[in-house]
Amino acid sequence: MAQRHVLTAVMLSLGGVVVAAALGLFDVEAAGADLPALVASLGFLLSLLASSWLLWRRPEREWYDARASAESIKTLTWQFVVGGGEFALGSGAESEVRSRFVTRLRELLEDLGGVGTSEAAGESQITEAMSTLRGAPLGTRQAAYRRGRIEDQRDWYARKARWNEKRRKVWAGLTVAVQAGGLLAGLARAFFGLEIDLLGLAAALAAAITAWSRTKDYAELAEAYSVTAQEISLLGAEPVPGEEDDWAGFVERAERAFSREHTLWRARKGQRDVG
Q: Cα(261)–Cα(259) distance, rounded to whole angstroms?
């Protein structure tokens, strides 16, 4: 939801400027007023309101925190249910391990209180299915982790890498097309007497497309997701540990690989937000 709000506001901010530039090409008067200019002013007003809301409300911080919260909770939960990392089986009395999991979850939710979680962490967060899987034999937990976590994450990152790469190419092509159109429009106006001034519209479109691509980070995400998918594939190719202690270390290492991309993503977004 937070991501949708951010992207909608960005689209309104950029779209308002493009609409204003497009309407600047026309000259229609009615009741003593220039209607295109009036509508163009409304476009600038829409852009101003959206930009002001983004600067004042800064909803992108909620977006970043929401993603960090979700991923951190997934990491804790998977470690707990398969007996990995700090929640390894035999690392202490089961009641103490469950209490430690709940405490870690509560601390996480308190640190990310701005996300607006609806339910406090407690024993109710440990479902029957989680307890059943945690009490299952090592082989069952390993199969569940490989299928539900490693393979799922590998496929997700590979799919998102392809998705972002396709969109990077599409938006890069649009940028080149608009810039070429602006070049042709300028030459036509300079040497062939073109009366319509398309230069302002082309400049506004090119700037809007560039800003939108920068907001979505298609190129950076395609590369980051591709690298992460390859790293997870290598992880999945490792032999399955046969002992609980080795298994706990394997899960911890795997979750560290997953969280690395999320940490870098949030750092990139945070630096962009500051800049």
A: 5
Short-list 160, 159, 163, 143, CA closest to 236: 143
Contact 206, 9 (CB under 8 A): no
Note the Cα 68 to chain centre separation in Å. 10
Reading the block at residue 121, the tokens are 């962490």
34 pLDDT tier (thresholds 50, 70, 90): low
**Which pLDDT score is estimated for 222?**
87
CA–CA distance, 41 with 162 (Å, rounded to integer): 40
**What integer pLDDT is reported at residue 139 of this predicted model?**
92
Left, alpha or beta for 193 (phi > 0: left; psi -120 to 50: alpha)? left
Tokens representing 90 are 């035999």
Tokens 């998705």 belong to residue:
163
* 3-state SS class at 107: helix
Contact call for residues 88 and 81 (beta carbons, < 8 A): no
* Residues whose CB is less than 8 angstroms from the CB of residue 187 and which lie 6 or more positions away in sequence, other chains included: none
Hey, what are 144's tokens?
A: 């569940």
The number of beta carbons lying within 10 Å of the beta carbon of residue 20 is: 23
pTM of the model: 0.76
At 178-219, the pLDDT tens digits run 889 888 888 887 888 777 777 788 888 888 888 888 888 888
Domain positions in the chain are 1-57, 58-274
